[in-house]
Automatic annotation (TrEMBL):
<protein>
    <submittedName>
        <fullName>Helix-turn-helix transcriptional regulator</fullName>
    </submittedName>
</protein>
<feature type="domain" description="HTH luxR-type">
    <location>
        <begin position="50"/>
        <end position="115"/>
    </location>
</feature>
<dbReference type="GO" id="GO:0006355">
    <property type="term" value="P:regulation of DNA-templated transcription"/>
</dbReference>
<keyword id="KW-0804">Transcription</keyword>
<dbReference type="InterPro" id="IPR016032">
    <property type="entry name" value="Sig_transdc_resp-reg_C-effctor"/>
</dbReference>
<feature type="compositionally biased region" description="Low complexity">
    <location>
        <begin position="23"/>
        <end position="40"/>
    </location>
</feature>
<feature type="region of interest" description="Disordered">
    <location>
        <begin position="1"/>
        <end position="55"/>
    </location>
</feature>
<dbReference type="InterPro" id="IPR036388">
    <property type="entry name" value="WH-like_DNA-bd_sf"/>
</dbReference>
<dbReference type="GO" id="GO:0003677">
    <property type="term" value="F:DNA binding"/>
</dbReference>
<dbReference type="InterPro" id="IPR000792">
    <property type="entry name" value="Tscrpt_reg_LuxR_C"/>
</dbReference>
<dbReference type="Pfam" id="PF00196">
    <property type="entry name" value="GerE"/>
</dbReference>
<keyword id="KW-0805">Transcription regulation</keyword>
<keyword id="KW-0238">DNA-binding</keyword>
């Protein structure tokens, strides 16, 4: 890509301009973990969902939530967990409703953030 007068701008100039533009634009509309997202007391990185909300989910819902960050579709999740695809959809609907989330993507991000709690939860369930 050519800059002014057909000369390629230096990478430093591009980075500087981008940083200046970002600073002028203010914080992003959606917090991104590790990029200016502010922790919420007792909750996650700007999601507004307290970790205590995990207690509102059934063990199976927590299990479905725990595999979301893998990026698999409903059919693959169903096979992995030995349940029907329709059941996965029902659990995802319930999870997003109970946690006040707007999408599966928000649920996957939250799941990645809460991975330690979800792993501990599964270990506890496996022991009983």
């Amino acid at each position: 890509m050519n800059g002014e007068h057909g000369v390629n701008p230096s990478p430093n100039r591009l980075v500087g301009t981008t940083a200046e533009q970002n600073a002028a634009a203010g914080p992003p509309a959606v917090p991104v973990p590790g990029r200016g997202a502010s922790p919420v007391p007792g909750g996650g990185l700007g999601t507004g969902v307290p970790r205590s909300a995990l207690r509102t989910l059934t063990p199976r819902e927590r299990e479905v939530l725990s595999v979301l960050p893998s990026g698999e579709g409903n059919v693959a999740i169903a096979r992995r967990l030995g349940i029907a695809e329709r059941t996965v959809k029902a659990h995802l609907t319930s999870i997003t409703r109970k946690l006040g989330l707007r999408s599966r993507v928000e649920a996957a991000l939250l799941s990645a953030e809460w991975a330690d709690e979800l792993r501990a939860d599964r270990a506890d369930a496996d022991r009983t």
